Amino acid sequence: MSGDDNTSPKNSPDTGNPGEEKSSGGQGPKKAPISFGAAPASADAWNVVPTSPAPLSNPTAQPLKTPAAKKTNKAPLSPEAPSPQTPSPQAPPSPAPKPEAKPKPVAPSAEAPPAAKAKPADSKPAASQAKKPIAKAEQQPAPKPAAKPKPKSPAVEKEAVAASATTQPVHDQAPAKPPEKPKPKRETPQPTQETTSAQTHPKKRRWHPVIPVVEKPKPAPSLVETESTEDQPLVEKIRGLAIHETPAWAVSLVIHFAIVILLALFTVATYHQDVHTVEATYSEQLGEQLEHEILVLDTEEFEVDANSGALETLIDSNEMPMPKSLMNVDLIGTEAAKLDNQDTPGVDLKARGDGATRRVLLKAYGGNATTEQAVADALDWLKRNQMKDGSWSLKGNYADGSSIENKVSATAMALLAFQGAGHTDRAGTHAATVEKGWKYLLRQLDADGNFVHSGGIINQHRPYTQAQATIALCELYAMTGDPELKAKAQSAINYCLEWQAPEGGWRYTERVESDLSVSGWFLMALQSARMGKLDVPEEALVNVDRFLETVASEPKDGQKFELGSRYQYRVSRAEKPTPTMTAEGLLCRQYRGWNQEDPRLVEGMDYLLDNPIQWEEPDVYYWYYATQVAHHLEGDAWRNWNKDMRQIIPENQEKRGREKGSWDPARDENGVKAGRLFMTCLCTYMLEVYYRHLPIYSKHYFTGG
């Protein structure tokens, strides 16, 4: 089968190509007309009515189709069948031949546009006219639209529609004019050829046929007719386009969006009872404002301004009656030791419970419900961040963790915080948490008393870790008296003694060099062992005294202070005294027996008061040691220090969110390195200072010594 278009004007009449037809009367070849979409009337002929495209008022209309060959008497449009040619517009209509040689007239299809009017007979012959391209039809004037055709018979209309549905699209054809609104059909006789000619060849209406470009169809014109905008200003043109070209859905979207905005401007008032949680900041003038379950003092027994900063003044005061347990010379609270039995282990730690002794110490030294609430929140934060194996982590799953991991040190510091408030593995509301933590920590202790093994702990952390774990273990034994813990605590103390350097202090390597920072932690381990009545050689303590003498700073460059009132990090003339090393050195002096009125101690405390707590420049490592020094010194020194400490530390505790109860280590030099857990533990130790240890110089009021 040939691939040429059946309606191609290139088919030549003298080569026998499709598009020509032999006459049965022996005449010369007769050209078949080109169909533009009208259905053929019979199998012998085509409708000799050229169609022209409709105006481009609706370019979306479907083009008329050429009828396809069928098995009926209609002539097929195929390469084997003759191709229809354009009729000669000059030739007038000829009389109808015999039925077998001339097609019968057929009414034009409802989809076909009106035909063009034929030209006079003096034009070129039809045979030569058929050879010209169809596109030349554009040069002819377009006839006016034909008159409205009369209603067709149902049979003729049905045949025309069926023929149009089976045709193939022809690209050279123009889209047909959309049919007008159909009117009710009625039975009419079959139109004659004269009627058809009258309908399809009007004499007055004509137009130019336009062949559309299929590849790039013109955009559809607006369905809304507007006035000519040639003389309108640009603003008016844009406004007209915005009004008439905006789709309906866009207009609806804008309207509904405007309605939503208007409704959002209205406030619907609803009245209901709100529950407000007040987070107050407490000042020195307000005094006690909250009550915590641990704090059981009556209001009249807990006047903050009544405390004098010393237990002696409180006991001698007649302003309020003392608790019965304090008046009883046999017992001090439910957890206190007998006064006549001074050898009972852990007397210094007995105030940590929730008995009367703790309440008296809070009253005497200015603790209040605010400080107790802060301690409770801190312990809750530690409990939430305990790991599954019972340990704690310096890195942790919390914000601002350390960049260095040391689970042994983190666990020891957390346990010290719980034990400072009286919680052990068998007593207190956090007993289960403490027990789980101790199961982990005791697994790290070997037979030699060493808590530190090669597990990624850096060399600088090793001595601090050993000292912190030993302090916690000695405290636990002193608080519980568990005989199984005694041997383990003693082995840990023995390992610490083996680490001591010849000059009397401790540093990063066993028996090599000393610095005051590491030595302070080891001395506290030995002091905790003494509280538990463990064996601590006096020689080791004397060596500590000797080392402290070497790190006591001397006045330089016109400075004036008494020797022994300020301290430096190491034995070196290049070292300068600092508040941190001074606080640690003075605490060591207090535990080593300096008198409460020693001028060196008093002058050193004045130096610390000149460097008070300021959260804008945090230094919790310094504050931790200075708080203990002031507490043991009592009197005005403690009142002046405590008024800032009990205000600033709780005030800067996290009050909400995941880190509620902790302290942010930002801006703290040591806190940034050690992380949030380190910062939280040391702040907790400070707020537990009222009862964590019995005051050194007023302890005889409890022990009778």
UniProtKB/TrEMBL annotation:
CDD domains linked: ISOPREN_C2_like
Which keywords label this protein?
Host-virus interaction, Membrane, Transmembrane, Transmembrane helix
Q: Where is the composition biased (Pro residues)?
A: 79-98
Q: Where is the Squalene cyclase C-terminal domain?
A: 363-451
Q: Which Pfam families match?
A: SQHop_cyclase_C
Locate the transmembrane regions by residue number: 248-271
Q: What is the recorded name of this protein?
A: Squalene cyclase C-terminal domain-containing protein
Per the UniProt record, the lineage of the source organism begins with: Bacteria, Pseudomonadati, Planctomycetota, Planctomycetia, Pirellulales
